[in-house]
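4.2 Preliminary Data

To establish feasibility before requesting continued support, the project team ran the inverse folding procedure on a target of 115 residues. The structure was first converted into the token representation described in Section 3, and no sequence information of any kind was made available to the design step. The complete token record follows.
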């Protein structure tokens, strides 16, 4: 029952974060402006939003995969092992993704040093 509730809570959070993502990244008229994305990724609040988005995507995807796999009766005896595997995969993916977001720095352009 806890997995079901986690799935529903993460789905609601994903609606929020996907709306923000679509408006900020994909809504600029006619094209994606990479300079806006680089400026946004330099701000700590956007890094926090991206990490929260990553967390809820992982919770939703991994809990959904767990529910689908354990629906098959022959895997019922492996539920605890699968749950541990899903948690380990989630933790590793979250740490790796968070490190990637936190390490991001805008590239320095040559024009920044011109008088």
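Position-by-position output of the design step:
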């Amino acid at each position: 029952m806890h997995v079901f509730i986690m799935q529903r809570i993460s789905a609601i959070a994903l609606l929020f974060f996907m709306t923000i993502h679509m408006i900020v990244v994909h809504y600029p008229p006619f094209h994606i402006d990479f300079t806006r994305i680089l400026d946004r990724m330099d701000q700590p609040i956007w890094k926090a939003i991206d990490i929260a988005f990553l967390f809820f995507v992982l919770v939703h995807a991994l809990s959904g995969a767990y529910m689908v796999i354990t629906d098959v009766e022959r895997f019922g005896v492996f539920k605890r092992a699968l749950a541990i595997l899903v948690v380990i995969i989630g933790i590793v993916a979250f740490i790796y993704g968070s490190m990637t977001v936190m390490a991001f720095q805008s590239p320095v352009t040559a024009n920044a040093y011109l008088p």
